[in-house]
Amino acid sequence: MNEYRLHHRGNLVRMEQRYTRLAESYLNLILTTSKTHIDRRILRYYVEIPYYFAPLIIKTWYDESKFYRYGTSVSITGTEHFTTIVWRSVKYVGFAVQEINDMIHFVAVFEPEPSGHYRSAVAYAHLINFRLKFCCGQNEYHEIPHELNILKKVGRCGFSNRIWRNFLNEINEYRLRHRAGIVKIKSEYTKLAEKYLNTILKTPKKYLNLRLLRNYVGIPFYFAPLIIKNWYDERKKYKYGTKVAIAGTEHFTAIVWRNVKHVGFAVQEKDDTIHFLAVFGPEPNGPKLFSSNVKGRSYFSSSRFLVKT
């Protein structure tokens, strides 16, 4: 890919883990979602090919250059992969690959995305909404608390308002997998989250109490749907049965901590960055309480809830 970019006076691109994780999320959704329900835009940089042709994927995309007209101001059908590969503003890439029955499934993510972040985020939002709404058997509906009206709080990010509402569903889905009860939004925790977030955004880092940052994240707005999933994915580093905290897994253990009953969220958008903070109550990750509060995944539990969106 970098060789082709140099041919077209583009800079070298680098792999970054966060974009690889996003590519893996897209690929998992593609492979687990019925084709009749998948948003076709998510398939733009996806290919399914026999394993013996896998080395030709990037070359095949680049060969679309034969159909491209230089100097055009619009997209030319059938050349989107080529233009993405050599797009000059792209700085980072992420790849995901799975082999199933001698077929290679490949997805690439480009950053900044040539066709715009907004559409990709919407595509992901549709898919995650679909998964959360239709993965369940029986559903218990609860009215969404007023505190989660993110549309009023983040302006342009209102397109993903349902994603923010689904954060509660997503946390509860993960909790049920680990034999923990569902949590509910509580206004006092929401107010506390907003207070902490305001303090973080207004206080110089050298004066900031680092304890406030435990469940805070600043992330580009188009990655907002991945916040809770990224936290849950910390489970890969966790050792069940331990009695002490394991560095790098604190978000995962907070999400599935059995003694947690309520949560509160706060979110602000600044300069295309989403600042998100969660408060869990009672406070999780207490010393020597991990073995009784963090249980291994149960494959027989099912979601029985949904927040009305």
UniProtKB/TrEMBL annotation:
SMART domains: SCP
Domain SCP: residue ranges: 162-288
Pfam family of the protein (one): CAP
Coiled coil: none
Alphabetical list of InterPro entries matching this protein: CAP_dom, CAP_sf, CRISP-related
Name of protein: SCP domain-containing protein
Naturally occurring in which organism (per UniProt): Strongyloides papillosus
